[in-house]
């Protein structure tokens, strides 16, 4: 029995961030991310972590996970925004 992998996973190491009184914003530069289906972009928030999985972007999967955030965030009020060439995570401060 053998398996052929169609996609490889690439860790996202490059990110920028900014913050305001209400949010911490994480900017991920991903070329053509705005062109893929919304179902291919998965973001999960917990009180002290977040993870991003972008599937089948130019035949590759891109992943980033940050655990043990210094301060808690609101899972329900945090969200993602996909723009041309980048994705922004809005982490709602509690």
Automatic annotation (TrEMBL):
**Which superkingdom is the protein from?**
Eukaryota
One GO cellular component term noted in the UniProt record for this chain: nucleus
**Has UniProt tagged this entry with the keyword Signal?**
yes
Q: Which GO terms describe its biological process?
A: heart development
**Signal peptide (residue range):** 1-16
> What keywords does the record list, in alphabetical order?
Signal
Molecular-function annotations in GO: S100 protein binding; tubulin binding; ubiquitin protein ligase binding
**Family annotation (Pfam families):** CS (PF04969)
**In what residue span(s) does the CS domain sit?**
10-94
**InterPro entries (UniProt xref):** Calcyclin-binding_UBL-bridge, CS_CacyBP, CS_dom, HSP20-like_chaperone
The protein depicted here goes by the name: Calcyclin binding protein
- According to its UniProt entry, this protein's organism is Amphilophus citrinellus (Midas cichlid)
């Amino acid at each position: 029995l053998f398996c052929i992998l169609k996609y490889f996973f690439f860790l996202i190491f490059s990110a920028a961030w900014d913050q305001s009184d209400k949010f911490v914003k994480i900017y991920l530069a991903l070329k053509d991310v705005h062109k893929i289906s919304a179902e291919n972009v998965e973001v999960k928030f917990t009180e002290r972590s977040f993870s991003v999985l972008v599937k089948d972007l130019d035949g590759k999967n891109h992943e980033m996970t940050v655990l043990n955030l210094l301060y808690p965030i609101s899972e329900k009020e945090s969200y993602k925004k996909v723009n041309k060439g980048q994705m922004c995570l809005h982490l709602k401060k509690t």
